[in-house]
Design brief:
This is Pyridoxal phosphate homeostasis protein. Keywords: Pyridoxal phosphate. GO terms for molecular function: pyridoxal phosphate binding. The protein has 232 residues and is an alpha/beta fold. The protein has a single domain (3-224), classed as TIM Barrel, CATH 3.20.20. The chain is 41% helix and 16% strand. The chain has 9 helices and 8 strands. An 8-stranded parallel beta sheet has the order 7-6-5-4-3-2-1-8. Helix 5 (106-119) links the parallel strand 4 (99-103) and strand 5. It is globular. The protein binds pyridoxal-5'-phosphate. Residues 38, 40, 61, 82-83, 207-209, 223-227 line the site of pyridoxal-5'-phosphate (PLP).
Length: 232
């Protein structure tokens, strides 16, 4: 292993301990929680190192930055598009990334549907819901979720596999527990509606600052950037 890989491994080990502790506090099995390594701060070399030390899921939030990295490493790992997605860039993402975490409007759904149809594949998406209601955050307002599901229910190339949210940045992660709990409650509500295209098993929530609280509230994908890869 190179020095860089050793460093990543050490960080990963520390994160693992914290994940295990959060799982045991909340009676969850470790296998229910997956780490998406958010690599927006770093170059393609670090992605190679992450894959080498056993990270499986890679998350990128900007299409332009992600494409060259994907060219190099896309065959390895599972790629997640986690950032705001412009409608005219959806064509670059569908067919490359395994999951889109940021489906938040009908125009984007229509474009993903169109691209999925052209490539003859069903695109697993996360519905991004703005639980905190912050105006600066993307995401569907909770009030619009039902209408959105109705309007996408005939789209055969979109599968809503999960929900995603971004919590406000706060000092004390306990403060954002209600945001994560709120997303979990939306998962249960949506599953009661029984839309065939929206059987929700996944919750993408929790970042470097607040992933333990997110795990306690049911996260299945935590999106970790700085705690894992940020050069300090
Ligand atoms: C940057 C980013 C993250 C990771 O943030 P950290 O605080 O560095 O862990 C997670 N999700 C999204 C959508 C991001 O853009």
């Amino acid at each position: 292993m190179t020095r860089e890989q050793e460093l990543l491994k050490e960080r990963l080990d520390r994160i693992e301990e914290r994940i295990a502790a959060a799982c045991s506090r909340s009676g969850r099995d470790r296998s229910e929680v997956k780490i998406v390594a958010v690599t927006k701060y770093v170059g393609a070399d670090t992605i190679g190192d992450l894959l080498k030390v056993g990270v499986e899921h890679i998350g990128e939030n900007r299409v332009q930055d992600a494409l060259p990295k994907y060219e190099q490493w896309g065959e390895q790992g599972v790629w997640h598009f986690i950032g705001h997605l412009q409608t005219n860039k959806a064509k670059e993402v569908v067919g490359r990334f395994s999951y889109i975490h940021s489906l938040d409007r009908l125009s984007l759904a229509r474009e993903i549907e169109k691209r999925g149809e052209a490539l003859n594949l069903v695109v697993p998406c996360f519905l991004q819901v703005n639980i905190s209601g912050e105006e600066t955050k993307f995401g569907l307002s909770p009030n619009d979720v039902l209408a959105f599901l109705r309007e996408t229910s005939n789209m055969k190339h979109i599968r809503i596999a999960g929900l995603m949210t971004m919590a406000p940045h706060v000092e004390d992660p306990e403060e954002v527990r209600p945001v994560f709990r709120g997303l979990r409650e939306w998962k249960e509500r949506i599953n009661e509606w029984k839309f065939p295209h929206a059987e929700i098993t996944e919750l993408s929530m929790g970042m470097s600052n607040d992933f333990e609280v997110a795990i306690e509230e049911g996260a299945t994908y935590i999106r970790l950037g700085s705690v894992l890869v940020k050069p300090d």
